[in-house]
Amino acid sequence: MDFDVFELRRLYAPDQERIRTGMTRQAAVWRGERPDQWPLLLSAPLSPAQERIPKPDLYQAFCDIDLMLCSQVRGACAAANSGSDAVPSARGNYGTATILACLGLEQQVFADKMPWLRQHLSKEQLSRLEPRDIKVQGTFGQGLEYMRRHRQVMGGLLPLYCMDTQGPLDLAHLALGDELFYQLHDDPPFVHHLLELCLELGIRAHEWMKEVAGEPAGHLHHGNALYAENMGIRICEDTTAIISPAAIEEFAAPYTRRLAAHFGGAWVHYCGRNDALSEIICRMPEVRAINFGHIPGREHDHPFARDMQRCADTGKVYFGSWPRFPGESGAEYLRRLHGWASQGCLVAQADAALGAEGGFASAAAALDFWYNL
């Protein structure tokens, strides 16, 4: 690669005082306090100098630690350049099944989409596994090497966040495959054994990553935007979203709560819509926030006002983006979000307010409008 990665420190060049302001505002919201301004998270274009940073495809970044670093710093530049309350951070972006490498499972890697796990362990193999079988190896070890290289190059300038991690039930699904859905009914004791194993895997993997990142167990950077001081991890519940409420209560919720509690709290993500799951998540005292993955083409499946009211009623925060309504201007969109943010139940990633028809011309214009509402 004809690029000196140590140039990234100079090219990134964030306004650290502005980042500290964003950290202070976000941390207050997660604690249920009122900040001086309700935070808004945006991104902005890279400068011409920053555009020189190599832009690898996903396969190239997976295979080359320095290219992964370049890819992550490009994202951090976009967050820092916005001058918003986003707190830039970076990770080794190795896929949803990264930590299952600790059990010997590896993903298929692609140039145009994220890695995907196509190999699984059998019920018999998983029945024999115990926590002592969890070890640093494969892609997970590669990810830790990325984190060490990141710190060597960037020092403390750009915080690290944990590689992609799933909740215990999601990990169980990835490890066993779709056979899990039969075993929920046919052999619950086996499923609980597997979930205990996946809970321990989640705990150990997060501890290993946080140790390398130098991040306290109960603090959190995430997603090149989020910062909190009273929760330590994100938990994904994508598989949980497609099982029954009774199965969620038996097989998912207890393990999610234990994983969250181990790190002083968590926020939970899932894709799609499952109102029963949302209710269960929002009743968990260990959970600080919820986030939905809005399905392309079905972005408006979630009833915005009802979901936000659930957060307000249960003392949770919605973290993340919401789509603009058809015909809604950027100003109307931000005014709608601010109505909930000002109740302390929304930390919004609001790039949807920018550009396109009726949007703001720049992040600075959007922020000026927001802070004056």
SSE topology sketch:
Elements: H1 8-12, H2 16-30, E1 40-41, H3 58-63, H4 65-81, H5 123-128, H6 138-154, H7 168-176, H8 179-186, H9 188-213, E2 220-222, E3 226-228, E4 233-236, H10 245-262, E5 266-271, H11 275-282, E6 287-293, H12 304-314, E7 317-320, H13 330-341, E8 346-349, H14 363-371
Parallel strand pairs: 1-8, 4-5, 5-6, 6-7, 7-8
Antiparallel strand pairs: 2-3
What does this structure look like?
By secondary structure, the protein is α/β, with parallel strands linked by helices. It has a single domain (5-371), classed as TIM Barrel. It has helices at 8-12, 16-30, 58-63, 65-81, 123-128, 138-154, 168-176, 179-186, 188-213, 245-262, 275-282, 304-314, 330-341, 363-371, and strands at 40-41, 220-222, 226-228, 233-236, 266-271, 287-293, 317-320, 346-349. The strands form two sheets. It has a six-stranded parallel sheet with strand order 1-8-7-6-5-4, sandwiched between helices. The chain has a two-stranded antiparallel ribbon with strand order 2-3. β4 (233-236), α10 (245-262) and β5 (266-271) form a beta-alpha-beta unit. α4 (65-81) packs across α6 (138-154) and α6 (138-154) runs parallel beside α9. The longest helix has 26 residues, at 188-213. The chain starts with 7 loop residues before the first helix and ends with a helix. The relative contact order is 0.12. The model has no long low-confidence stretch (mean pLDDT 97).
